[in-house]
Structures are given as C-alpha cells and as structure tokens.
Amino acid sequence: MSLDMNAATPHRRRQERGLEYALYFALILVISIPTALVRSFLPNRTGQPRRFFLAEAWAMARRVTPQIFAV
C-alpha cells in the first residue's frame, strides 16, 4: 500500500484559492483598520514618523494573511 500524501489531499484550482485569499485579506484589512487608526493617535516611542493608518492596516493584512495559508 502506497502512502502518497498528495493523493489524499484535494487540489484546488488557482482561481478558487485566489478568491479565498482575497476574501481573507479583505476581512483582515477591515479588522485591522480600527487598530491602525487608534495606533496613529497614540504617542510614538521610536521617534520615527508613522505611516498613514490605511498603509499600516494594509501592511498588517499583508503580514497576517500568508501566515493563515501557511498552516
């Protein structure tokens, strides 16, 4: 008996995965906007200028979404 792990796992089409990725990205972006907005009004400890809150939320979503798909 063969233990081929790929034979038991369903393969998704690229378009389906892209749609799922976009959905998760949009959801995480919407959730991270209030967090980034609040952080933009808090004092900055590093002394470096902060990015616009939408840019910060976009960066958060770009960091988190691939981590979900890596699991």
Overview of the molecule:
The chain is mainly α. It has 3 helices and no strands. It has helices spanning 5-8, 14-41, 53-70. Helix 2 (14-41) packs across helix 3. The two termini are 28 Å apart. The model has no long low-confidence stretch (mean pLDDT 83).
Count of domains: 1
Mean pLDDT: 83
Q: What proportion of the residues form beta strands (DSSP E)?
A: under 5%
Could you say which structural class the secondary elements and strand pairing correspond to? mainly alpha
What's the helical proportion of residues?
Answer: over 70%
Integer-rounded radius of gyration:
18 Å
Number of helices: 3
Instruction: Give me the strand/helix succession.
Output: HHH
CA distance, first residue to last residue = 28 Å
Overview in brief:
With 71 residues, this protein is mainly α.
Question: What tags apply to this protein structure?
Answer:
71 residues, 3 helices, mainly alpha
Secondary-structure map with pairings?
Layout: H1 5-8, H2 14-41, H3 53-70
